Amino acid sequence: MTSTVDLSARTSELLAAVGAAPLDHDSGLAATSPITGAVLGHVPLTSDVDSVIAAAADAYRSWSLVPAPVRGGLVRELGELLREHKDALGELVSIEAGKIVSEGLGEVQEMIDICDFGVGLSRQLYGNTIATERPGHRMMEQWHPLGVVAVITAFNFPVAVWSWNTVLALVAGDTVVWKPSEKTPVTAVAVQALFEEAARRAGVSPAVAQLVVGDRAVGETLVDDSRIALVSATGSTRMGREVGPRVAARFGRALLELGGNNAAIVCPSADLDLTVRGLVFSAAGTAGQRCTSLRRVIVHESVADTLVDRLGTAYSSLPVGSPLDSSTLVGPLIDEAAHDGYVDALERARKDGGTVVAGGERVRVPGAEDGVYVQPAIVRMPAQTDVVRRETFAPILYVMTYSDLDEAIALHNDVPQGLSSSIFTTDLREAERFLSAAGSDCGIANVNIGPSGAEIGGAFGGEKETGGGRESGSDAWKSYMRRTTNTVNYSSELPLAQGVTFL
Ligand code: NAD
């Protein structure tokens, strides 16, 4: 399959299908596919980031005054176009990010879902009214647009994370400048073309959401620019450690969505059929390259051997190969550096007394010699050592045992990251304890579902080194707006708060 598809030609067809300009440039950012390592084309670099920011700041002045339900009309057009072009964009995601087709399509579906959410939200930007202590007064809060939002995204969700941020920002009355990962510029160009068509149909200036293509330095320009009110940055904890203080230094706002080290606790009462399916999808799906990928299993000692045997059996039948092949479940790693990280982590785990019980090898896929494919690994660990406590962005699942739930929860929380988590149990007390304040310390905590695969309706994000940001559903929109508290005196007196007398 891989050898018979010319990925560069197919990319051109798909770009044409979504109305994007062809990549017929000789220079610029070279876009490659992790499927074969093939160069897909060159994406022009943005030479004048300053002008883009200026145009976004200018567009903000009028866009912020458009009534929110009318702003929702632009998001509705975008959602319709994404529905129409779901297959083409999903395939592009597979080609450029290496996701299996079903996950590439799922990522586009997530964009459609957030557009639906955004249209409804555009009529629900509510504030509170609050009881005042003064007679003849009314106190209320209003939410106003914030300004220009920079959206910096990672390679592994090359299109959905843009939409989580951009849809909320546009509905909120903000304008957007997007810097995608340098590893996935082609999908960004495709999304931008669809957005510009949506803007044309809605009669809105495309300057309300623009794209800048370039490396980390372009991201740094956005981070340091005081015309940008909010920097929403998704990526590694290393990146967040640089971005957070720089934005804070100019009193900007940062919304950080960083690395995870997600675990599942498996209790003695767990339904093992369901558990094994949930764990395998979360750990091996997307070749372990989700921020929410399952990386640690903490299993009760009474069921540990059975669980590991069953996981091993499931892992031995996982088809690794081209993500465009419909039978594949595990596609490639993004690049050789990711493979180095995989090999290094396995070596360290072995040194720490770990035993690799499944996978751990590189896989050669015919016709894709320059693609980086690995067999997802399971490693039994005697303890939660340093290598287990850090995020390795590859499919390695560490298994540790526990004897009582307090110990399991302590082990669960004893990592620097705090994104997603889960417990598999049929015991109500165990489940509720895990969800309580004394349980998981993560932003997402699930019962009888693995840690990956969130829906857009809930707020998404995590604590500790994951950065504390919340995107997507629930009231995450508040991050993209500024709150004003208003007190109105409709009486003819001037009573002062706290009973203060003056004049
Ligand atoms: P990365 O940190 O290498 O890059 C992410 C983005 O940040 C890229 O666009 C990059 O150009 C930019 N960047 C890097 N350094 C920067 C700086 N100093 N200033 C401004 N911009 C900078 O991450 P990656 O390898 O593309 O993605 C994988 C990582 O992202 C993993 O750690 C994963 O857990 C994390 N991630 C987190 C979430 C989440 O929602 N929490 C979602 C997806 C991915």
TrEMBL record:
Belongs to the aldehyde dehydrogenase family. Homotetramer. Pfam families: Aldedh. The active site is at 257. CDD domains: ALDH_F7_AASADH. This is aldehyde dehydrogenase (NAD(+)). The keyword Transmembrane helix does not apply. Its EC number is 1.2.1.3. Residues 29-484 form the Aldehyde dehydrogenase domain. Keywords: NAD, Oxidoreductase. SUPFAM superfamilies: ALDH-like. GO terms for molecular function: aldehyde dehydrogenase (NAD+) activity.
